[in-house]
Write a structure and sequence with these properties.
GO terms for molecular function: DNA binding; DNA-binding transcription factor activity. About 40% of the residues lie in helices and about 25% in strands. It has about 250 residues and is an alpha/beta fold.
């Protein structure tokens, strides 16, 4: 990595975000040169490009491990998965995002006829090995703690497909109606999944509703609906929070 690129990384680490116009002025180089620098740094995993600039690569290692998450709200996750399974027609193609609730959904689909599943989760893929389901794994860099794949290979696969439905696992749905993820990198993958599907559903138990995680994924109005549990209704509908917001946007719950 050359000195200019090292300096760019230092600036991003210091300020969290930089803009191409500012870097062009700072280094007295062309916009094209800065774009090449940012592209190279993103491929190395040192930054994440955004519109007009770049931000620091958000580390994924701090996310709660699968072994911990799989034992949380088990009853709710199973109920959500069963409801979500009823939304899926035989002979359709779907995306299953990484997560413990989407893993439960995969378990509900093992005997379905003519179903194709695209996933970035090695645990979901393993669950469907001895099933009638066709499985397409995105590939990519593996996040060992949760079994999820991310990075440029994952992104390219998602950009090349179009499916009937997408089922997202999320870190939170906040009171402003924003679906959120624990990192910018994960938010980027989820955004690509949404763009690759005819319709998207979020699977979220009550513990995910009404909280604010780090990175924005989408707004509720971009979803067909949220599949959640009764505690979400009891906890938030009466307070005119996110469940009510979903109904205002015209989605299903």
């Amino acid at each position: 990595m050359n000195d200019r690129r090292e300096h760019i990384v230092e600036l991003i680490q210091k300020h969290d975000k930089v803009y191409i116009a500012d870097l062009t002025n700072h280094f007295q180089v062309s916009t094209m040169t800065v774009r090449r620098d940012l592209s190279s740094l993103e491929k190395e995993g040192k930054i994440i490009r955004i519109h007009g600039g770049a931000v620091a690569a958000q580390p994924l290692r701090h996310e709660t491990a699968y072994q911990v998450k799989e034992n949380v709200n088990v009853v709710e996750k199973k109920a959500i998965a069963q409801e979500a399974a009823s939304l899926i027609a035989d002979h359709s193609t779907i995306i299953l995002d990484s997560g413990t609730t989407t893993l439960e959904l995969a378990r509900c689909l093992k005997d379905r006829e003519g179903l194709s599943v695209v996933t970035n989760d090695v645990l979901i893929a393993a669950e469907l090995v001895n099933s009638s389901v066709d499985v397409i794994v995105t590939g990519g860099e593996l996040q060992h703690e949760v079994g999820a794949m991310f990075g440029s290979h994952t992104e390219r696969l998602l950009q090349s497909i179009y499916v009937d439905q997408c089922f997202l696992g999320v870190h939170s749905v906040d009171t402003a109606g924003q679906v959120r993820a624990p990192s910018i990198e994960k938010a980027k993958i989820k955004r690509l999944m949404i763009d690759s599907a005819n319709e998207t559903w979020v699977l979220a138990d009550y513990s995910k509703i009404g909280h604010k995680a780090f990175a924005h994924v989408c707004h509720l109005e971009e979803l067909v609906g949220i599949v959640t549990d009764e505690q979400s209704h009891a906890r938030h509908l009466h307070d005119n929070m996110v469940v009510a917001k979903m109904q205002e946007e015209g989605g299903d719950l």
